[in-house]
Write a structure and sequence with these properties.
- The longest helix is centred in the last third of the chain and has 21 residues.
- This protein has eleven helices and 15 strands.
- Strands 8-9-10-7-11-12-13-15-14 form a nine-stranded mixed sheet. A six-stranded parallel sheet has the order 3-2-1-4-5-6, sandwiched between helices.
- The mean pLDDT is 96.
- The chain is α/β, with parallel strands linked by helices.
Amino acid sequence: MSVTGQPVGIGLVGAGAYGDFCLAAFADVPEVRIAAICDTDAVRARHFAGLYGTPAYTKLEALLEDPAVEIVALNTPPFLHAAQGIDSLRAGKHLFCEKPLAMRIEEGEAMRAAAERAGVRLTVDYVMRSNPLWRAAAEIRASGVLGGLLHMDLANHAAGLSLPASHWFWDKAKSGGIWVEHGVHFFDAFAWVAGADGTITAAQAFVNGAGQEDRVEALARYGSAAAHFYHGFTHDGMSEQTTIRLAFERGDVTLWEWVPTLMEVDSVRPGLIDTVRSFLPGSVRVEEAPGGLMRLNARLTEGKSAVYRRCIQEGIRDLAGAVRNPGVPLRVTAEHGLASLRMAADAERLGRPR
């Protein structure tokens, strides 16, 4: 709970399916309270307002005039983030922005400047930084227990087939494309794990028969670590899969699913087992691997949806704490959002289909 003892009021903008998920997550965080709902669909806005006992708005301007709203949780499509975010910040509201921070670097910089001028806090909902298994990977790298980080690889075969052709995701003018709308998550997560900013060195993109850019690939470096990213929105919800592999000098780490609930640490020397195990959350199993080495499996038993929900809650709790205690730094800042957006812009530019 905040130092004042009062929960921070949240006004959610964009009450679609993901907004619904966030509202349910926010409702179980004692540090905050849902103070207002805004959606251009009046029926949907009234529905959620009725569930949470708040005013319903169809225009952002009306929500920003509500004194009970201290944080704006922005869950609208990417092309709206800059204008709506800047309006919210100028109105003196703190901002919990769904990724990406903005579609263009100059927009993100304007959002950062607006927050600084208004003296309010701005964060991005980078859920990877709240996931216990991603955190374990970052701590293993920082500890040096497995030696230096050599290579990071992302293979993200996502459920693009579940998105209709009319969905805003496929319209680059609204989404920014795969790198901007989706890739920023992983650019940021790899920077966190590596402890270094990333640079894109090469990229390519593929367009399907419907004219949609549905596959992208890039190479990058984070300090002395090489990195590879692949996103393909070519699967359905049943067959999609995401794998993240981190190669160290004395072992390998694998995270399964884009919201990981399973982590494997392979090729570990027996003498390092207890040290490595101390970083792992959840249920941990140790087994022998070929060559006399060991494998550790860490599983979060509550399941993907519950882990995702907990990550959102940790992010909003972090912002609420910074709102009530201005000297407390945010774990995810506007600069983190900008750094990943710069990488996305470079990947988009270098990989533009020719």
